[in-house]
Amino acid sequence: MENNINEWTELWSQQKADNLDVDLLTKQLTKLDRITTFQKLFFLLVTIFSMYSMLTHLSKNIFNTTAIILILLGFLIILVPLFENKPNFKIESTNQFIENQIKYLKKKLLIPKVYILIFIILFVLALNIAFLGAFSELRNSTRIFFHFSTFILFIILFVARNKGVKNYQKKIFPLIEKLKQIKNQE
After folding, report:
1. Which three-class secondary structure string do you get for 112-152?
2. What is the pLDDT of residues 100-113, one digit of tens each?
3. CB burial class (10 A; 0-12, 13-18, 19+) of residue 159?
4. Which string of DSSP letters, residue by residue, matches the chain?
5. Domain segments of the chain: what residues?
6. pLDDT at position 145, please?
7. What is the mean pLDDT of the segment spanning 72-79?
């Protein structure tokens, strides 16, 4: 993959693009690819560990089993786009390469915008279902407190996701604009 990126850099260096730093663009794309690789490994390991822990310790009643299934579904909703969305570094034509990179970056932006939001909703729903089973014999006020705490958790996760999306957009939008500039120069 590094060789393909270097070939791409050489290809555009030969075209002498005006006021575009091709080396910087290449570094940013490479950094984004490394971040994606880390995300893939992180979410895969977290999914495997949490499923093992939950299945061996929490699958004693239907509420916990339902919660486990919802959390697993949430993890899969994040993992599938991470593994499906791969950059295409095959250089058939510069125009096609740029279009593929723009599509890749736009799909990458959907992960925190859409898929993480779905995961947060499923995670909070799973916690509420698990609380239904775990605290069924407690007073209603205690149960309401725990359900309210999951609502607070949802708000915190939603705000954190929004900040993450804004930071992610600050990284990805300039890359998309640079790629569009290069495409328009041809």
Report:
1. HHHHHHHHHHHHHHHHHHHHHHHCCCCCHHHHHHHHHHHHH
2. 888 888 888 888 88
3. exposed
4. -HHHHHHHHHHHHHHT-TT--HHHHHHHHHHHHHHHHHHHHHHHHHHHHHHHHHHHHTTTSHHHHHHHHHHHHHHHHHHHHHHH-------S-HHHHHHHHHHHHHHHHHIIIIIHHHHHHHHHHHHHHHHHHHTTTS-HHHHHHHHHHHHHHHHHHHHHHHHHHHHHHHHHHHHHHHHHHHHHH-
5. 19-185
6. 86
7. 87
Residue with tokens 């999951």: 150
Q: Is pLDDT larger for residue 41 or for residue 159?
A: 159
Q: Is 74 exposed, middle or buried (0-12, 13-18, 19+ CB in 10 A)?
A: buried
**Cα–Cα distance measured from residue 37 to residue 18, given in angstroms and rounded to the nearest whole number:** 32
Question: What is the spatial distance between Cα 94 and Cα 157, in angstroms, rounded to a whole number?
Answer: 40
